[in-house]
């Protein structure tokens, strides 16, 4: 893993943007995308740029279960708002959080990932070390999963809802194995609340209790941090 520490999230996001641009210019066609506060600035930079994704595909990491696609809290809505409606992609894939037949939806998403190998995967990290919604203990061999969200994730995400009771308790997520199959990975983490997870990601043992730590086994990961999230690194 290559770790780069910047003074601010804005500078780290600028670096992420440059890596995305380089990847696109080098022929990448499939981008694994994340939601949450962390990648918002990166998406802003992409939207403001002249980069052309009209021949590219996006594959999102995860989606809450039980929200409609029109719900402002859904990740389908987030992606439209922050990226897709401003910067068209040829194909946009997001797990279907309204699926009635869960097994069919998990199989559908695995097939999409199999048919569209991910060139560049963008990741955030949860306070509990999750990537996507792969909560601890993570299945390092897992493909797309239907999972129960950790109480810590529900609490962390409650800031975006009117009340904690409105946060969905289940989600669909791309599995760790699929994330690890991506050719290149950029993980961003900002703020002091991520500092312990970042320390375990980089300095801890590879441990299913810290799902992101498996990235130590991937050959091409760039970790972009701000000073606050890097504060416990040796
Ligand atoms: P955040 O979420 O970007 O909103 O902090 C990251 C995550 O939980 O993976």
Describe this structure in words.
The protein is α/β, with parallel strands linked by helices and about 230 residues long. It is about 30% helix and about 20% strand. It is built from seven helices and ten strands. The protein has helices at about 10-25, 40-50, 75-85, 100-115, 150-155, 175-180, 195-205, and strands at about 1-5, 30-35, 55-60, 60-65, 90-95, 120-125, 145-150, 170-175, 185-190, 220-225. The strands form two sheets. A seven-stranded parallel β-sheet has the order 1-10-9-6-2-3-5, with helices on both faces. Strands 4-8-7 form a three-stranded antiparallel β-sheet, with no helix packed on it. Helix 7 links the parallel strand 9 (about 185-190) and strand 10 (about 220-225). The longest helix has 17 residues, at about 10-25. The two termini are about 15 Å apart. About 40% of the residues are buried. The mean pLDDT is about 100. 2-phosphoglycolic acid binds near residues 37, 125, 126 and 130.
What characteristics describe this protein?
234 residues; alpha/beta; binds 2-phosphoglycolic acid; 7-stranded parallel β-sheet
Give a short account of the largest sheet.
7 strands, parallel
Count of DSSP-assigned helices:
7
| Strand residue content | 15-25%
Mean pLDDT across residues:
98
What is the SS-derived class? alpha/beta
Q: How far do the termini sit from each other?
A: 15 Å
Q: Shape from CA axes?
A: globular
Helical content class: 25-40%
- The strand line-up of the biggest sheet is 1-10-9-6-2-3-5
Number of strands: 10
What gyration radius follows from the Cα positions, in whole Å?
A: 16 Å
- H-E string: EHEHEEHEHEEHEHEHE
**What small molecules does this complex bind?**
2-phosphoglycolic acid
Low-confidence stretches: none
